[in-house]
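Lecture notes, part 5. Sequence design as translation. It can be helpful to think of inverse folding as translation between two languages: the language of shapes and the language of residues. The source text, in structure tokens, appears below.
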């Protein structure tokens, strides 16, 4: 009688094969599709620091004042789903203490409303869906996934151009390590504005088309390596007015050596980065490796049981010790002599 493999060996072999197939699928199919810029985002980041600004009530630049930059990023889920892109609406306001809390963003010292559209996989800019302003570069409100140890082109919206960010090693923020990048921006003309002549040293002229200049004392960004999320940001904006054709600043509109993420914002960004990074690590590394190892062990165990079962069939099967034969078979375990002896 022929024996078959035991149910346990087949179960182990089947489960092992399933896990061995699942492991590369998680690593090569599921994990890359999990690396997508979210579209249902709704976050607020806050920068604080000290600096100078032009007080329109006093008609002069005031110094050593508290400054707050508040940025809200909200995803347009419908437009994102319709376009397949990440469509984010971004509101940014700059406030001294006297305009906080601002019931209306128009009451702020400065306020901008923008729409950023990017490829969800590469983070590259996509020019569609009411994008405003037109922008280029590799990094904006976030870096691409899997941040590399190299320079990146960062879009500076005030400058209206990209800024080369230089990799400066790693830095821990709230105990969480990220990649650190820095840059500076030299004074650059960014536009013109009609102002009273007195603001640019020409009191005899009632109105002057002054040149607007922008510089940045220093940009520092720390990004989570796996997700590209910015866990720390600090900037040093300087905006001034100059008389037409002049190379000297006449009026300071805004100037701060450093405005940076508040501790609360740092903590929130670190928590979000840690959660997202852990999920990607689980899908891309932990589960595939675990599935491959466990699948290999189960498959080997199943094969061993199958082989042992077959060996057992060969050792105890027909003609072997303890094997069974049909009555009258030429291989019967008793001889005629034995039968005769027993009946004598």
């Amino acid at each position: 009688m022929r024996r078959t493999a035991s149910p346990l060996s087949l179960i182990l072999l089947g489960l092992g094969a399933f896990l061995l197939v699942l492991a590369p699928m998680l690593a090569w199919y599921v994990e890359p599709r999990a690396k997508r810029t979210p579209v249902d985002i709704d976050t607020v980041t806050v920068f604080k620091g000290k600096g100078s600004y032009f007080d329109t009530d006093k008609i002069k630049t005031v110094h050593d004042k508290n400054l707050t930059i508040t940025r809200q990023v909200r995803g347009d889920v419908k437009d994102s789903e319709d376009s397949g892109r990440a469509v984010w609406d971004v509101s940014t306001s700059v406030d001294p203490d006297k305009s906080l809390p601002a019931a209306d963003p128009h009451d702020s010292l400065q306020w901008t409303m923008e729409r950023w559209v990017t490829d969800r996989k590469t983070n590259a800019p996509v020019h569609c869906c009411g994008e405003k302003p037109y922008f280029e570069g590799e990094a904006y409100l976030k870096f691409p996934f899997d941040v590399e140890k190299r320079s990146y082109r960062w879009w500076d919206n005030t400058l209206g151009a990209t800024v080369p960010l230089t990799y400066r090693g790693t830095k821990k923020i709230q105990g969480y390590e990220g990649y650190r990048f820095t840059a500076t921006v030299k004074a650059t003309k960014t536009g013109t504005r009609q102002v009273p002549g007195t603001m640019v040293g020409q009191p005899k002229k009632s109105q002057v088309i002054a040149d607007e200049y922008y510089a940045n004392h220093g940009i520092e960004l720390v990004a989570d390596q796996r997700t590209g999320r910015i866990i720390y940001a600090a900037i040093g904006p300087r905006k001034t007015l100059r008389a037409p054709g002049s190379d000297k600043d006449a009026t300071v509109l805004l100037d701060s050596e450093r405005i940076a993420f508040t501790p609360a914002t740092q903590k929130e960004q670190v928590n979000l980065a840690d959660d997202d990074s852990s999920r990607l690590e689980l899908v891309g590394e932990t589960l595939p490796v675990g599935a491959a190892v466990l699948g290999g062990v189960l498959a080997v165990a199943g094969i061993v049981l199958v082989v042992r079962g077959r060996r057992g069939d060969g050792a105890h099967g027909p003609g072997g010790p303890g094997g069974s034969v049909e009555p009258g078979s030429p291989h019967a375990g008793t001889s005629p002599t034995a039968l005769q002896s027993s009946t004598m």
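The translated text above is only one of many valid answers, since several sequences can fold into similar shapes. The longest strand covers residues 176-195.
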